[in-house]
Amino acid sequence: MPKKKAEKSTVKKKVIQATKDINKKRWALAAALIWGVVVLIVGLLSTFTGYAAPIVNGLGSLYLGYSATIFGTLIGTVWALVDMFIGVYLFIWLYEVLGRIL
Question: How many Å apart are CA 27 and CA 30, to the nearest integer?
């Protein structure tokens, strides 16, 4: 019986460790790519059809240079990629710090 208890304890420790170690770079890159594609699609839609112009104008106040032009869409996409990568990376870092404290 003691052997099974030790095995369960080892498995439990591995599961806890796996949930604590989140790969911040992978998560941040995945979120940044998704958000970047969304910003790119919205910008191109607004450029060619005029659709979603209020969204582009709103995001343009956040991402300097983002506008309903091809060049503006590319600038906004780069801003969105950087913004989301940093934001998610810091979010996960804070999550891990709080997990150690609490």
Answer: 5
Type of residue found at 72: G
Taking the C-alpha atoms of residue 82 and residue 17, their distance in angstroms, rounded to an integer, is: 29
Question: Does pLDDT of 14 surpass 70?
Answer: no
DSSP string, 22-85: --HHHHHHHHHHHHHHHHHHHHHHHHHH-TTHHHHHHHHHHSTT--SSHHHHHHHHHHHHHHHH
Q: Which residue has the higher pLDDT, 16 or 32?
A: 32
User: Tell me, what amino acid is at 92?
Assistant: I
Indicate the residue type of 13: K
Note the pLDDT of residue 64: 96
